[in-house]
Amino acid sequence: MSPSRQAREVTTTRRIDRVEGPFSLDLVLPGSKSIALRHILMSTLAVEATRLEGVPRCDDIDAMLDCVARLGTSVGRDGKTATLHPAGGSCGPVQLDLGMSGVSLRLLLAHAALRTTRTTFTGHAQLHHRPNRDLLESLEEIGCTVESAEGFLPVSITGPAVPEAHATLRTDVTSQYLTALLLSAAGLPRGLRIRLRGERASASYIGVTETEMARRGALVRWIDDATVFVPPGRYRGGRVVIEGDASAATYHMALATLHRGTVSFSNLGNDTRQGEFAFADVCERAGARIERAPESVRVSGTGHLESLGTVDFSNMPDAAPTAMAMAPFLPNPTRLTGLATLRVKECDRIAAGTAELRKVGVRVDEFDDAMTIYPAANPHPADLETYEDHRMAMALSVLASRIGDCRIQGADCVTKTYADYWDDFGRVY
After folding, report:
1. CA distance 181 to 169
2. Contact criterion met (CB below 8 Å) for 145 and 157
3. From 84, 93, 199, 245, which residue has the greatest number of CB atoms within 10 Å?
4. Residue 318 falls in the annotated catalytic set
5. Which of the following is catalytic: 59, 97, 318, 424?
């Protein structure tokens, strides 16, 4: 399936009624998009075929599978299972359309360093506004020839005949740059030693990358706090099961907390390294009861909401929009910090979140990397905009579920990561 379908105009309007009472749900979450994308990339560099189970049905995955097929990997898809046979790669120039998938873009930019012919990247207009400059500068150090306009799409990369084994990388914009280099470093003839500069944005995602690489037999060696080395090698193939998506879980956790509901997840638990799983702790602080197990978790709203005070989202940034949606219904102001990376997501989620909350009568103080959200005595219905951002759409459904008679414009953008979201959301009524 071509990722060009992602460029379609997003026009669906969805009415959200008020959720009136308790509910009880057992959910199998879609597989983690972030983890699945990492494994798709690793599978292209494996010594044998890989069978990925639990692959989510969403646009980002479709775009990634389409692109690795263009790069020479044989791809088969059957429901939630994808089978990838590495075939040595495509020798000629290739043009890749990443749709709206920022993670896929960054992973494949680094992968282009392994090809000595030209790889050209494009995508949806939204993706053309997302920065890549720091990663591209690192690729130039490795020896790549890079053509771009200040790091934005379109980008063309030609890999070197003899790659360097060292690079430096600025890490305060997004963790995706480091993840991309780590995953492809094993495919370089001498591996790669990376010197890191700056604060580590969303550091929990690097932990996920290391864990998933280790599952496939790759080593990540930390020389010191600012230097990491990946030796050359090949990934193992075979069967890989993708766990549930912790970011997707946050919306259902919030709904349970706000509406005295209960939601149980059977494919996500304490064993995960996904940073967004810590949103269960946020719900617990807000008054929910949490029952945790290694591979499952249950969230039960008690009907009594507590203040959160200040919450740092630097290691769970994708959960921040969900917290924005919960905050107006808590008894005291909520301060969300660690939000700097939200400015460069599919939209500026701080500005967008502020605008939509104010539409329904919520007082919000907006800062460069933080927000303070005040309790709303009488929030009112409104038409809410998603900005073609899947996480805004899902978070706004949580907000609207306490208000009722709201309409979410462009609601079908959830297909980017969670194609079945509206079906699962509808089960709370």
Report:
1. 9
2. yes
3. 245
4. yes
5. 318
Full-model pTM: 0.93
Q: Which residue has the tokens 């890999």?
A: 159
Over residues 155-171, the pLDDT tens digits come to: 999 999 999 999 999 99
299 pLDDT exceeds 70?
A: yes
Place of tokens 């060009």: 4
Give the pLDDT confidence of 330-364 residue by residue, as tens digits: 999 999 999 999 999 999 999 999 999 999 999 99
Tell me the average pLDDT of the chain.
95
Specify whether the CB–CB gap between 414 and 421 falls below 8 A: yes
Q: From CA 49, how far away is CA 335, in angstroms rounded?
A: 47
**Residue 263 falls in which region: left (phi positive, over 0), alpha (psi -120 to 50) or beta:** beta
| C-alpha closest to that of 323 among 296, 343, 342, 304 | 342
